[in-house]
Hints:
By secondary structure, the protein is mostly helical. The protein contains 17 helices and no strands. It has helices at residues 3-31, 38-57, 63-75, 82-100, 107-120, 126-133, 138-149, 152-157, 159-175, 179-188, 195-214, 225-231, 234-239, 242-263, 270-291, 298-303, 308-319. Helix 10 packs parallel to helix 12. The protein is elongated.
Amino acid sequence: MPQGARSLCLVFIVLGFLAVEASHAQLDSIRTLDDIGRADARRINEWVTQKVAELQKSNDDERIVRFLDAFVAERLNRANTAAFVDAFAEQTAEVAVQWFAQAGSDWQIGMALARVLVDMDRAQAVPAFLAGLASKAQAVRYLSAVGLVGQQNALVADSDLRTRVIDAVKTVGIAETNGTIIQHLYRVIAFDTLAPEVFDAYMAIFDARLTRRRGGAVISDGGEIEAYEFFRKSSVLNALKQTQKEELVRRLAVFLRFDAERYVAPNLNFQEKDYIERSMDGIEAILAAVTGAGGGQIRQRLGEGAAPEALLQEARRWYGHEASDTLGKLNDDPWKVTKGAP
Length: 342
């Protein structure tokens, strides 16, 4: 390497080192404080904004890694006080909310901000996660839902914030089409001791999902698996009113019909087959707990390795079959499921 080029390279290395040191120094005078004032919070905000601007200007393959590493280094600094960590999360969330609201914003930057906030694992990030749920980027919506799942304890303790989250999950869940994101949205509001409070949100999302299935979305994406895991808990079922149990059963009957009919389709891939089996298992566990004996034996036949057609017949013992004029357990009072669960 020519002497001039070597010298220039050394200059870049030194400048890079100084930039990193300056970046640390920008927060060093704040991280040891037990009381973060407005001016200090503004300086943290400026640091976060600067990092986003640097990320925005970069176009190399390592830009996201550098961004994430910068936040990890500051978050894990041993000199940090609890007040600083909370303020760091709060100011990062504030920048993220503004970024998520921008039309046409870079989804990778949004994803990086959401990832940083998930790693911070602080209740101060909840406003950003709520904003991220409305993002057009699937990665941002997914990470925002994951972040909210991690804040369930904080949500249980704050009724106003919990109401905001439940309303937001209901709104975005109705519109969401990605099964994996739907699973996490159900997990966000899976408050075991507050089943009646979240029931309407679950049912609204169920109705939207069933509308899509009736409209031709035949593939089982496993979206409801987490909802079934929530409702099959005895503590949750016991907390529901009888009318709510009836509403739940009527929707589960239709989900079961769609999954059982899909299960007999040829050449299902392993993932979809697994989704269907787990879904049917969860649905029947709930139906049996709520309605008692007398329906199908899907779970038993699954354990026996029964053929798909045999499982379809077991499912129809629950919801009936119009073409063969067969009644199912759920067609009678008080469930009143229409024969065949259309």
